[in-house]
Design goal:
Elements (H helix, E strand, L loop, with lengths): L1 H12 L8 H9 L5 H20 L1 H4 L1 E5 L5 E5 L16 H4 L1 E3 L2 E3 L17 E3 L7 E2 L12 E3 L7 E2 L12 E3 L17 E3 L23 E3 L18 E3 L28 E3 L27
Parallel strand pairs: 4-5, 5-7, 6-8, 7-9, 9-10, 10-11, 11-12, 12-13
Antiparallel strand pairs: 1-2, 3-4
Length: 298
Amino acid sequence: MTTLQTMFFLFFFVPLVKLVPPIQQESLNLYEYDTDIFEELFKQDYEDKSQDAIKKKGKDGMIVSPDSNVQLELQRDESVPKVPPTKDTNLPTCLLCVCLSGSVYCEEIDITDIPPLPKETAYLYARFNKIKRVAVSDFADIPTLRRIDLTGNMIEEIEDGAFSKLLLLEELSLAENKLIRLPVLPPKLITFNANYNRIKSRGIRANAFKKQTNLSYLYLAHNTLESVPLNLPETLRVLHLQFNNITSVTDDTFCKSNNTRYIRSRMDEIRMEGNPIILAKHPNAFSCLKTLPVGAYY
């Protein structure tokens, strides 16, 4: 009886047992797919983008290229072509020079004349050029000038009146030129530099500095002066006369022989080294000074 029951169970119930649902079969089979196709698609897409990036080099100056480790590197051409400075002296002043807030810079551009200046110019720097002459017309229409620096040119001639009408001019440098005489100076000058020229004593008028009531700094070193200029103003603080050909001084050169109580109180520095004069031979010439001049005393 038991045998018959077992056979009956197997005959009727075993065919009714279902397999694993199809959705579970699909989920399991997903992990068994071959991944080669994904690698092939990724490789093809990467190569297409690399080629597109390389083609863009001509447009924006950038190169994108893959290396052996499949990395992208960005390279930019940052070189800037160098443009040589212009030497065309026929350009307008503010193209040839640099004009900035009332200042004009015309340095080392090989100009041979003072260029036309903007009306509001207060400071002119025209150093180390090839200027040979200064005319009255160069500054006639620029009354606003306060500083003129013409150092390192080839100036041999300055017309009378070229600076004298510049009533606001406080600083004037004519150093390192070829002057043999001084021009008439403007009345409110504070600093005047004529070092390294060829100026002789006869090239300086007797009253050249008498009316300079603001002059504080006077530089006449490295010229060919035979004597100290006359009528030096009371306002003078610094006087450079070194390396000239000065051979003597008098009791009235710096002091007043008729006034033994006179003191030149503002004078702080006098340099006379490099001259043939022996300063110790002229003790009364320096009695009014707070400090003795620098120079040879024996």
